[in-house]
Design brief:
Distance between the termini of chain B: 60 Å
Radius of gyration of chain B: 30 Å
Largest sheet of chain A: 9 strands, mixed
Strand content of chain B: 5-15%
Strand content of chain A: 25-35%
Strand order of the largest sheet of chain B: 1-2-4-5-3
Largest interface: A-B, 28 and 24 residues
Radius of gyration of chain A: 27 Å
Oligomer: heterodimer
Number of strands of chain B: 12
Structural class of chain A: alpha/beta
Number of helices of chain A: 12
Structural class of chain B: alpha+beta
Distance between the termini of chain A: 78 Å
């Protein structure tokens, strides 16, 4: 009996190798696949979208080439099957690096298309989502000879490089999901534009739910990043009235320094930052925002006398004041547009007990919130350059 | 395992041989049918007759002439009796026998049988001579650093080397006979007071219980006495290096040396012991540690790299990083086979190269390695037979498997790659995991002379990790490996080793 059972086990084990082959995973041999590296979505007309995919294809005779395939459909799945009909290689989403939504589409809401990506297990969580300034097709249709790599890799590197330099908030699918499904925060995605045969980032799109409502230009991004994240690098140029600095402008040898501008620009480089948002008054909804920074002075357009500690204090004060007003302006702008990329809502919900507040209620409350911003910037270094 | 071999035949009752010389001759001749190898020399003196029976291919003729015949002839006073002859022979090993089977066995071992007619017994004197090669460098375990001397085929010589290495009063060398017919001499060597008696007993019993006609060498003996003959993994270590054996003996292991076998078998040896080279011991500990880790990593890669390639290219294209994607896809696009076939084909070519290189003389072998490696590799890629990335992977895993100091283990590692590749081609990553789990379970179930095979990892012996997995600075290895359950637990007092010593002390 024992022996028989052992044999039975062996037979079942062996036969599973032979008989259950179709129950195993489906083979997807790399060279037979058309790998989608980027998808662009445009709104074609009412009830129809155009999807354009950049497909890397491996041809034994030629070098790797990227094909563009477009199709019109209502859902991503149909789109893919439509596109599959137009190619000799099976289209797969597993190597997707970047998704581009046209501005028109983004203003109507993109969660349907984002959800389609979420449901596909082959699509990674680190896919970058972006918004095209005009239409997605013109971006995905970039001439590959000019950018030297395929468009998916180019866009991926473009965004990753800037995220690593901390010039951009990371726009991965994961982060979009997190911020979208979180009441207390709204997603932010970069906006791409075509500029002279190249694709560049022109700013970020602010979302209310899944609809794009406003654009934030690159120079304001610094403050948004300062409020949401911790900085380790990143730099910022600040604009000042020159007269305010008259006392500390150092005139060397009786000669004034070159005057290209009639204003004074100071560029600082951020070494460390730490932001604390705190709800201090629950009734009147007053948020206390404290930004602590250690930064270094990189560049000034006028020769300033940095040798005296009092002068440094003065510059710090000026910078603080300027930043405070900028941040306040930005927050008011967000309030006006009904977007909350900073995560003020999360801060509120963390402080209020009881039944969780609904999204609509929060949006109503958000309108009346007040902000008390304090920036404490310390200039730790004035000399070193990187 | 070999129960069916142990059915014992009824032994013949011993009988004394004939007292008449002519009849004795006939008796021996019928027992040993060896033609002219068997030589009889009859001597006569005053009616007394004496016969010398010997096998001339086994004996040292000068010894026979100078020692045996000369001393018998020179001694003219006494009669030729068993005792008197024994008295005049200036030799150490002589025995008095009269049983025919003992006489025949003695002659067969290179002894000379001296018998004076009508005496109740004769004398067997050992004048055996064996042809031996000189001491050479170890061939299968080549070393850069450390003693190079290796065992030869002579048990006597091997014991001599070992005894000189281990001048310990506790060194025991018990006699064993292997093979019912061949009666090969073997020695069970261990250090009393260190080696666990249980292990010694098990080892001895397993060798003694064998009922085999002939065992060609210690490696084969190892295959007969190990617990699982179906496994690809060797469960007992064989080595050519005497210093390796001495290190093992002091760690509480038990060794078997066999006559006519240049390998020494020792155990219990765990899985990780096969990745240990004596060089690790002679090197400074940090270099030893690096080398050992290098070998383990190489083995791991050697087993998993090719299957990973197959799995990724057949099923999991998602995980390929984008810089690699283009070059992988480009080189794969030209290959007409699925990745499994491609990998199996190339693995097969590498195995062919290795096997052919091993069979050919060294000089031709080298040329063949180059020709095979470059020509086949280059041509295969150009012809679109394989992708060049696979060539790198295959070469890497072949190299990895050759870093294993034990040739047996290296071969095992090369073999287990094939089923894993097949499974990777069948089920991708799931297949690799399945195969890997199977091998881990198999290793967990294996044992070596009653001890678990996967120590010190399972059952975990954290202290022993410094002996097999890692290498620690010498002052931390004051104890003998726990796994060997040694009687004497300490090698040196650990406190003393950690003391800082000043110059004036």
């Amino acid at each position: 009996m024992q022996k028989l059972r052992k044999w039975l086990k062996l037979v079942i084990g062996m036969s599973s190798f032979i008989l259950l082959t179709s129950c195993g995973v489906e083979p997807k041999q790399l060279e037979r696949l058309g790998l989608i590296t980027a998808i662009g979505f445009d709104l074609k007309k009412e009830n129809e979208i155009t999807g354009t995919v950049a497909v890397s294809k491996f041809d034994p005779m030629a070098k790797v080439m990227t094909n563009l395939i477009s199709a019109d459909a209502n859902t991503l799945q149909t789109l893919r099957s439509e596109e599959n009909l137009a190619t000799d290689q099976r289209l797969e989403m597993g190597q997707l690096r970047c998704v581009i939504y046209s501005k028109e589409l983004a203003e109507k809401g993109i969660i349907q298309l984002v959800n389609a990506l979420n449901r596909d297990p082959a699509v990674g969580n680190m896919v970058y989502l972006t918004i095209a300034e005009k239409d997605a097709l013109s971006i995905i249709n970039m001439d590959e000879k000019k950018i030297k790599v395929n468009i998916g890799t180019y866009l991926y590197n473009l965004i990753r490089q800037n995220v690593e330099r901390e010039l951009l908030i990371s726009p991965t699918l994961h982060e979009f999901n997190h911020q979208f499904f979180d009441y207390g925060q709204d997603p932010v995605l970069p906006i791409l534009k075509v500029a002279k045969d190249k694709v560049a980032i022109s700013g970020v799109a602010l979302f209310n739910d899944d609809k794009m409502v406003a654009k934030l230009s690159n120079d304001k991004l610094f403050y948004l990043k300062l409020l949401t994240d911790q900085y380790r690098t990143g730099s910022k140029e600040l604009e000042f009235n020159r007269d305010e600095f008259a006392n500390i402008i150092n005139v060397q040898g009786g000669q004034s320094y070159g005057e290209i501008y009639n204003k004074l620009f100071i560029s600082i480089d951020n070494l460390r930052s730490n932001t604390k948002i705190d709800l201090v008054d629950k009734k009147n909804l007053v948020f206390d925002i404290q930004v602590k920074m250690d930064s270094r002075l990189l560049e000034t357009t006028n020769y300033l006398d940095l040798g005296k500690p009092a002068n440094m204090k003065f510059i710090e004060k000026k910078i603080n004041k300027e930043m405070e007003s900028q941040i306040k302006k930005l927050l008011v702008f967000f309030q006006k547009k009904q977007v909350d990329p900073v995560g003020i809502g999360n801060e509120y919900m963390a402080h209020v007990r009881g039944k969780p507040i609904s999204q609509e209620d929060w949006k109503k409350l958000y309108k009346n919130a007040k902000f008390d911003v304090q920036v404490k910037n310390t200039l730790t270094k004035t000399g070193t350059m990187d | 395992m070999f129960k069916w071999l142990s059915g014992k035949k009824a032994e013949e009752p011993p009988k004394a041989h004939s007292l008449v010389l002519e009849e004795l001759k006939e008796q021996i001749k019928t027992e040993l049918n060896v033609g002219s190898d068997l030589v009889f020399r009859t001597m006569k003196r005053d009616g007394e007759k004496l016969i010398l029976c010997l096998m001339n291919t086994l004996i040292d003729s000068t010894k026979l002439e100078e020692v045996v015949i000369k001393s018998i002839l020179n001694n003219k006073e006494t009669e030729w009796t068993c005792e008197s002859i024994a008295k005049v022979l200036p030799m150490v090993s002589i025995t008095a026998v009269n049983q025919l089977n003992e006489v025949v066995a003695g002659i067969n071992q290179g002894k000379v049988y001296i018998y004076a007619e009508d005496q109740p017994c004769g004398i067997l004197a050992d004048i055996n001579k064996t042809i031996e090669r000189g001491l050479e460098k170890a061939e299968t375990e080549s070393l850069v650093y450390g003693p190079k001397i290796s065992f030869t085929e002579s048990l006597q010589g091997n014991m001599n080397i070992l005894r000189n290495n281990v001048k310990d009063e506790g060194l025991c060398a018990e006699d064993l006979t292997v093979g019912n017919r061949s009666k090969t001499k073997a020695k069970l060597v261990y250090i009393k007071g260190i080696a666990d008696e249980e292990i010694v007993k098990t080892f001895k019993q397993r060798v003694q219980d064998l009922t085999l006609d002939y065992v060609p060498g210690a490696t084969v003996l190892g295959q007969y006495i190990e617990s699982d003959s179906w496994s690809v993994f060797p469960q007992l270590m064989t080595t050519e290096l005497p210093d390796r054996v001495s290190i093992a003996l002091y760690r509480g292991k038990v060794a078997v040396l066999m006559d006519r076998s240049p390998d020494c078998l020792y155990g219990p040896t765990s899985f990780f012991a096969f990745f240990e080279s004596t060089e690790d011991v002679y090197m400074r500990w940090n270099m030893g540690l690096f080398l050992r880790m290098l070998r383990l990593v190489a083995t791991f890669l050697s087993v998993l790299l090719t299957p990973a390639y197959v799995a990724v290219l057949t099923y999991h294209y998602e995980v390929i990083p984008s810089p690699l994607l283009l070059s992988l896809g480009e080189s794969r696009a030209r290959v007409p086979f699925p990745p499994v076939m491609e990998a199996l084909l190339l693995e097969f070519v590498i195995e062919l190269l290795r096997e052919a290189g091993a069979r050919l003389p060294t000089k031709v072998g080298q040329t063949m390695g180059i020709v095979g490696g470059i020509v086949i590799g280059q041509a295969a890629v150009e012809a679109g037979f394989t992708s060049n990335i696979l060539i790198i992977i295959i070469a890497l895993s072949a190299l990895g498997s050759f870093t294993t100091p034990s040739y047996l283990m290296g071969t095992a590692i090369r073999i287990i790659r094939f089923p894993i590749i097949l499974l990777a081609g069948l089920w991708g990553g799931i297949g690799i995991m399945l195969a890997f789990c199977y091998f881990i379970i198999h290793l967990l179930k294996l044992e070596t002379i009653g001890a678990p095979y996967l120590t010190p990892v399972y059952p975990i012996r954290l202290k022993d990790i410094g002996y097999s997995f890692f290498k620690l600075p010498p002052q931390y290895l004051s104890f003998r490996p726990l796994t060997n359950r040694t009687d004497d637990k300490e090698r040196f007092p650990s406190k003393k080793a950690k003391q800082k010593r000043d110059v004036d002390e």
